[in-house]
Amino acid sequence: MSAVLSAVDTAPLDALVSARASALLEHVLAHAPVTLYLSRPGPGFALFFVSPSVAELLGYAPHDLLGQPDFWVNNIHPEDLDLVLADRRALVPGEVWLRKYRVRCANGQWKWIRDRARLEGVPGHQEIFGAWNDITELIDAEESLRLSEAKHRFLLDNINAGVLVFSAQDTRIVYSNKQAEALMGCSAQALRDMAPQILRDALVNEDGSALAREEWPVGLVVRERRLLQNRMLGLRRSAGDEPVWLIVNAFPDINSQGRVREVVVTLLDITERVCTQRQIHRLAHYDALTDLPNRTLINLQIDRAIESARTTGGQVALLFLDLNDFKIINDSLGHAFGDQILRQVAELLSRSVRESDTVGRIGGDEFIIVLPAAGPDAAARVARKIGEQMNAPFEVEGQSLPLQASIGISVYPDDGADRAALTRNADAAMYHAKACGNGHQFFDAGIFSRLEKHHALEQELGTALEQGQFALHYQPQIELRSGRLIGVEALIRWHHPVRGMVAPLDFIDVAEKSGLIQPIGKWIIAQACRDIRHWAGQGLAHVRVALNLSLRQLQEQNFLAHFLAIVEASGVPHDCLEWEITESTMMRNPEVVLGFMRSCRERGIRFAIDDFGTGHSSLGLLNNLPVDKIKIDKSFVDGIAREGSVQVILASVIGMARRLGLSVVAEGVEEREQLEFLQQINCDAVQGYYFSRPLERDALASFVQGESGRLAQAVPRFNRWATLGGDGSLRFAV
Predict the structure, then answer these.
(1) Which residues on adjacent β-strands are paired with residue 442?
(2) Which of 338, 411, 463, 605 lies 20 to 30 A from 279 at CA?
(3) Residue 373: exposure state from Cβ atoms within 10 A (0-12, 13-18, ≥19)
(4) Which tens digit of pLDDT belongs to each residue from 283-294?
């Protein structure tokens, strides 16, 4: 049987199998995802076989490529050609050559292909067997990915926020952008090497307290697998540094198993905004000059203190403080000088209270002090402490300036059930303290009626000035040696339309405190000059008029210029005027007073110290001042007949004054015994009702012209001066 079979002709069957195999191969080559080729080594690497799929790859039929020996070389992209040829020429047998490059298609476009080839055979009989894959889409995808990555990296590096990526496993940093590195003050490597605890410990809460471990944003997100949004935290890069303030957002990157793989944290630097907001808050709640709480914050503090006291049944004391005559300081010495005073006062007040108390400036020279859980006794202690500390002069720009304050006190709940009432009543008490000259004053129900009278008097004084209700009277000053008139003192009188004649003691203090003394003072100067001119026309030449000078006038800006302008306009000689200034006025602001005195003396205007003996000056001090005379206060003159010590004091004062070249005028002489004593101890002149009450202008002219002889006779004559006995008593020899 086998022999039979072997004798059968199998050629047709082999041909059939071969044909089928060829067809199958052709089908595979035509539809394979790669294009196969064969080429010969040489200059152009000419192709001698290309599979049919080249038509789909490049758009060419196989015979198009096979008919062009240099086809492959001529259609490689110029940018890729040199590198591809150099690599292909270096190909050795058995080595797999793998390159990607661009080839021109039949339509002129370029495609990226991956070329995988191998050199086979022996020299002289070598072939290159290779395969081309279309990788254009892959290259485009890679390029898109590269561009996307570059774009995102660019965005990450240029957005206005730091970005940190933490590993969820150990919460270490695995990525940081440039902003994060700048915020942290570290390089990317230093951040990756940083232990998680170091970063956690560098974070602080909004109030500056340390961040709790469980509040660590990365740990919180990993633990709870949720977003952390808009958490404000501070980053203190080193001990003692001010925090960098951040808005922190953190979100988890969760894998397919639902586990947190990484935590992405964004850090937005809001330090500038926080500082701006705090500055705005400070500007809204603190005084820019003194750095004390302003009215807004003080009101909040008062409300809180009252609410607490209402809950506990406690008390709250409110002190309303105003600086006396501060406007004069500003007007005379300038606002820069006044600002320095206000700063020193703010420091003084802050030192005078407890940490739980609040000192605030509500405007100008007004301050409020809130004393929570404090009653009248505590408030009085604070007020006294402030008064004692303000007794020391304030030193500014080399000048020593005495300054006093008026303090009004109200206490919750007795003086008010809310802030408005408490503040209003403390303010009223302050005005009452100022009107009375007291350092501090508690509120009482009668204050408002007294203040109403005070304010009404201010209004009436303004009306009196406008309507010409004031007049000047003049009290003669008589020289004891000759009995002649040597001058007069100008004294203001108020002819009130309802109350009649109002004494100066009833309105001068109000005029001083209200500032009306300044326009009233200018009227007095002008009227005195007019009266001097009038007397000159009546034949009374060179009557010297003494004018009373107040510190309020002195501290008025350009007061000297205004005074001289009035005098120059009147045509009155300067030596017809004399200023009288009290010891207390002189001592309260000696620099200002001394400057004014020297300027006046240069122009021939004389000065007298009024009410000598009632203040703090001394004859030794007067020796250094441009003073011409002293006026002994009436209180000493009244004591001549009653107290031997007064006689000794007066005799000593007059003796020393004469040795200093000062003349002496005794005020308030009303009795002959007083006159005789003063003449005996060599007093130069007297003034008082013994000779004349203050007279109107025309009455003074008549007094001088008609009674000069009587004046001379009214002055007693003595044979010898009085002497001091060994027991200190004064003895007369007549």
Answers:
(1) 409
(2) 338
(3) middle
(4) 888 998 999 999
